[in-house]
Amino acid sequence: MSTDYHKESFFTKYIWSTDHKIIGLQYGITALLWLLFGFILMMIMRYQLAYPESPIPIVGALLGDGGLLPPEMYNSLGAMHGTIMIFLGVVPLAFGAFGNYFLPLQIGAIDMAFPKLNATSYWMYFVGSVVMVTGFFVPGGAANSGWTSYPPLSNIATTGQTVWLCGMVFLITSSLLGSINILATVIQLRTEGMNWMRLPIFVWVQFITAFLLLLAFPPLEAASVLQLMDRLAGTSFFMPSGLVVSGVALSNAGGGSPLLWQHLFWFLAHPEVYVLILPAFGIVVEVIANNTRKPIWGYKSIVYAVVFLGFMSFIVWAHHMFITGMGTSMSSFFQTTTMIISIPSVVILTALFMSLWGASIRYNTPMLFALGFLPMFGIGGLTGLPLGLAAADIYLHDTYYVIGHFHYVVAPGTIFALFAGIYYWFPKMTGKRMNETLGKLHFFFSLIFMNGVFLPMMAQGLAGVSRRLWDGGEMYAHAAGVLYLNEVMSISAWLLGMTQIFFIVNMIISLMSKKTGESNPWGATTLDWSATTSPPLGHGNFEVVPTVYRGPYEYSVPGADKDFTPQNEKV
Amino acid sequence: MLELLRYFGLPTFSASTQGPAIDNINVLAHWLMALLFVGWGAFFIYTLFRFRASKNPKANYQGIRSHFSSYLEVVIGVIEVVLLLGFAIPIWASRVNDVPKGPDAIHIRVVGQQFAWNIHYPGPDGVFGAISVDLVDEVENPIGLDRSEEFAKDDIFTVNQLHIPVNTPINISLSTKDVIHSFTLTELRVKQDAIPGMEIPVWFEATMTTDELLEEIKGTAREGRGFEIACAQLCGLGHYRMKGFMTIHEMDGYEAWLAEEQEYLSEEEEDDWEDDWED
User: Fold this and answer.
1) A551 touching chain B per CB within 8 A
2) Distance from CA of A518 to the nearest CA of B (A)
3) Residue B121 burial by Cβ neighbours in a 10 Å radius (0-12, 13-18, 19+)
4) Does the N-terminal peptide bond of residue A57 adopt cis geometry, omega within 30 degrees of 0?
5) Tell me, what's the ipTM?
6) Residue A50 belongs to domain with CATH number
7) pLDDT for the residue numbered B271
């Protein structure tokens, strides 16, 4: 079990690999490249918003029309930025890459439950992501109806929308395969002694995330197929009759409802928010436990909060739809569930703050990113409060306040946690260390510029500036007082882009450096560090499959000879 | 806090009867947010400083032993219940249930389309004329009004020009010809999506005339720019320019405007629309 018993070709080892670690790396590298691509799209949009009448530098040559960005192209960039960041970037990185690589190691499994399904899941994702981006090359450009694709706009949109829907069908199928795999692995392949209350929080959050993906994605897959039918087969699932577009009466049969799409879409897309944030919680817990050198405060309350959060995330979706003409009883229900779901998030965040008390905090790069996550996610969560109250949402709905809110959750929130995870587990994946100075520069500049991008959005939102405006709001009188912020945000965004060079350079020079030979450089307690070499063996992971004797975060145990007691250490 | 939010972008005035209540709940929510953020932040920074490894080389296995956090969670829960029951739900109930139907209310139809707002007044008979999609002509008759029908003869419609009187309940029936739009009056704290296939009531009562607004904003960045209708929902490539104008008159000014429009109508239909297409 411990060593490779057959020689693998390059193809079976790196392309059609069934080793969860290679698949995790495939997911990670692909997702990081898409994140960079999605970020570049946004940097182009930010130029348009800051200087609406000027030609776009560098990429302007590709646009024709003197380098100016036409509004339909701006809408394409917006829709694709959202889609790429969420479905091609953050989820595959948080769930596909981190989940695949570290979950089996943390529970002492020799691989995922269904290795071939795992490889299929990655390749589905790869094909889906390529399909998604080919939209840029069809007539009319990529999908331009927002990542939310509300019909009838999306039904009558250019061909790019068809490509978007086909891409989504691949991506959703990939997520379903991945989630089944994680569920089966956690339920079946925990090593001896690894009972549920000894699972690292990281495993718990991946487990709940898998449930969310499995249960929430099928409605969107169905809805995507229905929208495809509306576009290609002349059905009217999402269209009433009697519509007149550009002076021409549509001949569709009618009888459908645009709100049906919104319900199906948000039934996925709200749990999706927790798919984005739960893995981030898990990574942050691992890093904070390790670098405070003490147990996480309130392990059980975090586990229960995560389970409850997962359950509640299925019954809050319509708080995205308050302004569609909702009556009092329905809006009251969704406001109440929204207020209830804020409580477990508060429990988790509070437990993490409390964990710092009595700690011996090591300020290394992963810890800085994990600590940075806490207040940044805090802002993201808190700004959700007025949006969740329907009356306050009347004013704030569809303004930049919303954009600021969810970017705080996902960008300096989840993406900081993902960076923490990359810096934390890089030595595990490669046997090498990342440079601390470059890492700290990366963190501090990212922190400053993230806030430079997203804090002004709150001010624009409070002033009432709508989202998705090609001219950044220049047209409107109410935007006049906050228009100058567009330039502040854009410059911050480009500087944020430059800051990522620290990360890329660090990655390259660290990969070229010598192996350190340490298997557990952080002095960690979980099996991924304590029971395997760095990097772990090929197929099989462990020289000896570990047995677990205690909970996941036994740091600074009184009377122990060192400040960490691994899960697999026999007393 | 209201002042703070206003410093942070919120307009310094709200020009409708429900505006202050909506600003109020926003202020309360932001108070709660600020308290939590400052409280957590202070605790966070203190622990980061006090428990750094160089100062505290040996971590405490037990950690904190107070139940303070449970109390905090209960308090947040209670405050949220108060926000919901005391403010959010009543404001919402008033928004959707108190639609003014009486003779004092002014009833207007607003029909969104890519990328303009069609405003339809019933005329002196107070009844909207019949509409048919077959009659839609983007230049002459954008809402498809059937002029041959009895109630339609005196109907007035404009493009992107909403005129209303101050201190009078306004009842708008909102619909759309093509895709989803969102009818937004930022200064009045009014926002409602227009959904194809639905006619949704939107009501409000303005408390400020255009002249008063222009006075109020003298010396600010928006000086000289009156009330506008914004579209808040992505509706296609012209979404950013789907802007209408709203003029809030004193009652006599509103009646004078209506009479003037009526006069245009009786003169001749042909060149009416030109006036509205300007701007």
Assistant:
1) no
2) 22
3) buried
4) no
5) 0.93
6) 1.20.210.10
7) 52
